Amino acid sequence: MLINSECRYLDFEQLRTRLLTTPEDKRKRRRWWKLPLVWVDPVRGYVVSTLLSQAFELDGKPDFITRQLPLVLTFVILSGVVFTQTLGRKDENESFSPAGFMAGLILGLVPWMVAVPALLIGLTVTMAMNVYAVGYLAAAVFVGGLGFAFGVGKTQSAAYAIVVAAPALISWFRQTKLVTPVRC
């Protein structure tokens, strides 16, 4: 996340209100999806997950432990990356919500037939409940459930679901709320 001193930190309800209302001074605002910085996080998440999953490909016929080692390493590295992304302003009781990064991460980790429904459900639940954490948990349930149903594997589905739920879990453990930095 690219953060500077001019950023405001908004939870989902405040962000949605800001995006849906027009400014009082009637000046023309640039649409958020046209800003190049919006697309940095999803691309970064996709690249990290894709390269990491390809880095640990196995050759030959490995035994059970050797097959699980790449998954464990991927899980540990991605959990560390998500933890770093989520760290925020502890003194303000706020953690950053890496929504774009997590969307790219999901698209890079699981097949599209699992990733797209999980992202849509996560976004829909976040919009309905106005809380980022609930959206992450809903997306995690879908990544785990659909991943298992579409043959991703029990262990992989569980590990990926935990990584997707990590921002909500980290926020809960730290007793903070998830916010998004927004340029004023």
Describe the 3D structure:
The chain has helices at 12-20, 40-55, 64-86, 99-109, 112-129, 132-149, 154-174; strands at 7-10, 94-96, 177-183. The protein is mainly alpha-helical and 184 residues long. It has one domain (32-183). The longest helix has 23 residues, at 64-86. It is elongated, with a radius of gyration of 18 Å. The model has no long low-confidence stretch (mean pLDDT 81).
**Mean pLDDT score, rounded?**
81
Major pleated sheet: 3 strands, mixed
- Give the termini separation: 15 Å
Which regions are unreliable across 5 or more consecutive residues at pLDDT < 50?
none
Q: Please give the count of helices.
A: 7
- Please tell me how large the radius of gyration is: 18 Å
From N to C, what is the helix and strand string? Answer: EHHHEHHHHE
Beta percentage is 5-15%
DSSP strand count: 3
How does the helix and strand content classify structurally?
mainly alpha
Indicate the percent of residues in helices. 55-70%
Shape: elongated
Number of domains: 1
Q: Which sequence of strands runs across the widest sheet?
A: 1-3-2
Fold blueprint:
Elements: E1 7-10, H1 12-20, H2 40-55, H3 64-86, E2 94-96, H4 99-109, H5 112-129, H6 132-149, H7 154-174, E3 177-183
Parallel strand pairs: 2-3
Antiparallel strand pairs: 1-3
Helix pairs in contact: 2-4, 3-7, 4-5, 5-6, 6-7
